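Practice problem: predict the structure.
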Amino acid sequence: MILFLRFPNDIVRGGFMTRVITFSRNVFLPLSTVCRNRCEYCSFRTPVQAGCILPPGEVHETLRKGAVAGCTEALFTFGEKPEAEAGFRTLLTAYGYRTILEYGEAMCQESITAGLLPHTNGGVLSFDELHQMRPVNASMGLMLETTATVHAHRQSPGKVPERRIETMEDAGKLHIPFTTGILVGIGETMADREESLLTIRDLHRRYDHIQEVIIQNFCPKEGTPMARTPAPTTEEMCVTVSLARDILPAEVAVQIPPNLIDAALLIPCGGNDLGGISPLTPDYINPEHPWPGVEQLKDLVRDAQLKERLCIYPRFIRKGWYSPDIDALIKQLEQKIQVRSW
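Answer:
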């Protein structure tokens, strides 16, 4: 007999509780590194130049290799509203696209054709833009980061908390399974973190659309204004993960990034998801931190059970919160991960 406990993935077998820790196997595709924001901790953003757009041919080849490697998810990112940067549209039109969203939509369709479920994180999007992307995505995401006004965001119009909350709310209205999270250590206080998590909780209570919340630690990067800012300690992260687990509803996963911190120390604090792990592509946001392999994940979760998942969580599949156009692919990939054992 299997009983669901405080964490929705945890199970009881033979009278003993087993923690279940989930992850997704993906490819990471940054369609552009141009961004209107200038966050003081970011090394991902580049100016408009040759190579700032990932060419369609490279996208296609990565998707093909990802499918061969057994990946189920294509994570698409691009800098927020890159068209606001002078010269970007000229480079993009050379590939036959007018906007980054149009390009993203086309590449999501390529992903579906290749057999991988798309998940897009494109920064602040309007209701209409989310509506445009919904049919070609199994899920979408936007990091809230913080509800606080911090110095690190002073040149980042897209990091105004109210704008990000509006995007998250519109995603709920559109029934989009959604990923969000907070970034710990960018100048916010513990009280700010609590407020951010309460904001996410309240949005989820209204729309029931948050499937996971990432508790991500700031990592200082050379060449950025915050290069000498101390990273949060493991103890500080544990307290924040525990706070998230206490505040968020049980059905919402608390995700911890295993390439940025010793996740083995945060699982006992309440973390129950390890996010997307790629056997093929680097973490382009944090390239200095390589992904662990699946065998390393098995060691990391210790006595817990490691379980693969799709980028759309099972309860949203049951609710039918996705386009009929990807129904067959979802069912196919569900069967694929069920027969894989870790």
